[in-house]
Structure formats: structure tokens, C-alpha cells
Amino acid sequence: MKNITLIFAALLSVALLQAQEEKKDSLVVTVLEEVVVDGYFGGLSKALNQQKNNLNITNVVTADQAGKYPDDNVGEALRRISGISVQNDQGEARNIVMRGFGTQLNSVTLNGDRLPSAEGDNRNIQLDLIPTNMIEAIVVKKSLTADMEGDAIGGSVNLITRSNPNDFRASATISGGGNPIRSGGYNANYALVIADKLSDKWSYTLSSTIQTRDYGSDNIEFAWNDPADWTDNESYEIEEMDIRRYDVKRTR
Hints:
Blueprint: H1 2-26, H2 40-53, E1 58-62, H3 63-67, H4 74-78, E2 84-89, E3 92-98, E4 106-110, E5 113-114, E6 135-141, E7 155-161, E8 169-179, E9 185-197, E10 203-224, E11 238-251
């Protein structure tokens, strides 16, 4: 009985070895090209190191961080930073207030170059005109150094545009949502970025954004009597009161 068991075990081992050899013969080896994995925390780590090593108080928002939230423009991304508030225009973030100072007391630069205001009577920068998909990083400096302009009492915001890659890259983003302020209102955002390196000296980055936004607001506006009529015997009076409804649709 023992001899039969040993013979059976030997035959089973031979069969297993033959099956393994046949499997090796049929195995096809595929050689892949180079695979590059870009980690999300790489950009975040770089931003944190920049905040830590800068001599002044600095906050850095990368494109990866802004992409986690439904921020369609730079103003909406900046309002998530501590010490910064925004002034909304029909529900859309437009002007920034830093450390409690007015909008005209802050400066905004694009790659270090000063941006002018789109309005002729003030220094406010309309940040709702700049989409977030065109920006690689936002650097906010809340205290000035000697190499910065002295008119930014509240602080300075530097918008850094996307850098050109070493090879071809393309990305498309589609997002949308509803607006509860107005019945039937919707928001849509379409973004496309194409970049490539043509040679050692030439490269390009093209970015395009189409935005459609439905906004609205309800308010009450008052008109007071003429100040010339303000006498000791006459108090302030409301001559007119308007209940207004604004429906705004912006397409950029």
C-alpha cells in the first residue's frame, strides 16, 4: 500500500511540473513604455514649503487645491483663505478685502506684473473675470517686504499662470449646477487646456473657458428727502421706496 502511495505522489509531482512548464511556454511578456504618475500631494507639499520658508506671511493656493471646490473664478478661490473676504456682485465674488482693508488698498499682479483695474474710477481688480483653470498657483502675501510696492497696505495677490510642460498634455472639464435663488437658473462651466513642447526653445499653453451663470437678487432701495429741507422742525423722511428684483445672466 505504501508503494502505491509513493508511486501516485511521484506521478502527481511530474504532472504538476509539466503543467508549470507548459504555462511558462505560453506566457507572453509585454514591455510597457515609461509610465509617469504625478502625485496630488506633490504640488500641495511644494505650496506648504513655500509658505514655511517665506520671510513674510504667505498663503499659497495651487490649481489642485482650487480644483477640489466649485470655484469658477479667482475671487471664489481666494475667499477660502483666512484673513480674506470678498465683495460679491449679484452673488459672484469680485473684489477682495484683505485684513479688513478696503479693496482699493490691495494689489493684484499677474506673474509679478501689476494688473490695472477694468473700472476707470478706482483701483479695484475684478477677479470674477479670471477663471481658475488658467492659473497654476495663487500666492497671497499679507505683509510686505522691501522688494514689493508700498501701496499694497492690505496685502498683495500674485496670480501665476500655467507653465508649459515637457510633452503634449490636454485636459477638459465640464461642470454645472442649479441656482436656488432663481427658478430655472443654472450654472455651466466648460474648460479646455492644451499644452505642448515644440522644441528646446518653443512651447505653448492654450486655455479656454466658457461660463454661463444665472444670478439674481432682491432688495429694497430708499430715497430720502432733500438735505436742504432738513431743518430743526423737519426730520429725515423717506420720499421713495423701491422693491427691486434683479435677474442677471452672465456668459463669458
